[in-house]
Model the fold of this input.
Amino acid sequence: MKKIILFGIGVMTLFLVTGCETADKQLEANLEMYGRVWHNALNNDDWTEVNEDNFDKNVTLVLQPENIVGVQSVKDYYKNYVIGFSDRSFTIIDLFGQGDKIVKHWNFKGTHTGNFFGIPPTGRKLDLSGVTLVKMKDGKIAQEHDVFDNLSFLKQLGLPTD
Done:
């Protein structure tokens, strides 16, 4: 009887260790892919990896007053940063996660020289930091929620804040 119990404990331990190693490898792969995709898109205007290989087809960007859903819609939204700002620099300050969740601490710098979500160029410099909360699903980006100081953003561009 003791041998059966010890064997059962050994098998359970093996499953737990193997499961943890698999989860760690998936998280590591998620972090690498996520950082690479956004670095290339926002710094190099290279959107080739913003596709259904890396994004859930119903990826959701959490925004107010309504969310943006779908790979192409998310791509079009973020392209506004590339169109609106020259001499861009997008830096991932820190990127970490647990399970299927990722947190990205980022900084975006640039000069507002192009149309940005309908806002004509101001020629002003922007230096904005924020955090993105990310949910992954089956190794793909499923949801993003950006959080940053909107008042600072508007002031830096010289836009009305009332």
About this structure: Residues 27 and 107 are 23 Å apart (CA to CA). The chain has one domain: 2-156. The chain has a mean pLDDT of 91. The first strand starts at residue 55 and ends at 61.
